[in-house]
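User: Modeling request: complex.
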Amino acid sequence: MKRIMLVCLWWLGIACASPVSAEDLFMARSNQSFPETMLALQQAIREQGYTIARVQRVDIGLTTMGYQTDKYRIVFFGKPEEVKQLTAAYPRLIPYLPQKISLYAEGEQTIVFTANPAVFKTMYSEDGLTPVLDRWERDLRAIIGAVNKLD
Amino acid sequence: MIFQSQAGASGAALYDAHCAVCHGENGKGGVGVPLSLPSFLAGADDDYFRKTIRLGRPGRVMPAFDQLSEDEVSAIIAHIRGWSEHEPVVFSSTWQAKGDVTHGGLLYQQYCAACHGKHGEGGSGTGVTFSRPRDLPIIAPALNNSGFQAAASDQMIRQTLMHGREGTPMGSFLEQGLSQQDIDDVIRYIRSFGGEQPEHKPGRSDDAVLVVESSSSFEDTVEALRQTIVGENFRLIREQSLDKGLVAEGHENSKQHIIYFCNFSFLNKVLAIDPRVGMFLPCRVTVVEHEGKVLLMTINPLRLSQLFNNAELDKYCKEMLQLYEGLLEEASL
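Assistant: Request completed. Predicted assembly structure:
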């Protein structure tokens, strides 16, 4: 199995030459304001077939406690059936579910970021997880990519 | 000409893909320091850029881009150069400042340490992030960093100290009364840092999660956890089943119970260190009944921290790890 992987990588050459380490985080800078980016992000998440579970308003918590901050929120999402199956089959994944993407305002722009699911491959040895993580990676690239292109 | 404009276009695209998220759309800065200031571009040669891009700044957020080709790196540099009219400078990579390291050390502590740190460890936090109030508009880079030490020539450092960087807190030290010789002394002192800080490697092999089995029932464990969290001076912010909001109300799996909590003063501190800590938020323990066992689970903050290349953040994550370990242990008794 290992050898086949290596051959594939070699074949794909440049396309997958980037080591995981350079891309542990997916980050994007949206040229749109925070509320607009938030809407676009949620739409992009839904377009990949996920359900938005809720939004954590970190900024509200902080300002209520007397600290100053600009808008800072976390969007939680998942696929209901997948979450059910994964948490049953791979309980060690539970603390990282549901999935999340964070965003904060930076002036007139908005920064959006999340962990690259590929990093979990180095954290979990469970074989069955690889296809799931690969799919998540593709989905998140699409989601973050959609937000990055916002002008 | 055609070649040049093509390189320009792809340089812009490469910059947008790899750098803009931190250094800002037009190099104005963000999580990273500004790159477009004429005072910076006038005093940095291509070699400095090339090495900085390749080596990054270990432990100081700036990643090492070893996956880019030589042409791609050149295209990015050309794009950055396009923000200023200055002809690029070229510094000698072999010229060395001659000076008195002891005298340089005295001057350093007097003139530089307040911003760059006693041991050259740099200011606290990241770039120029606007999302919250901060001490300096731009972070003072770490001078003891192996990436900086390898990228910056003595001539470049000398130029930076003589002229400062207009538009940043970094002033000209000729204007502040240091002589050319004083400046060379300071350079010798900066070189004595050597860039040999311990390698930045927060436990690659650490587990992704912390798991403890509870000796009590599911309900008792949840209650014990609540008490423990409050006892540690955290504020409970929310309790829910893991699948809440994903499945229809009334159909949630109540045997996957999340308790979210927060220490806002700690959170406020960590956000100033790295605005990307949303990845760890909010603090959370999940109580799970799985195959007849009651488990308490959290992420391992130290394991997650290694995605950030931020040594300062690692320290806080170590603190968080100990905290989580303490909570799990106490709540599982």
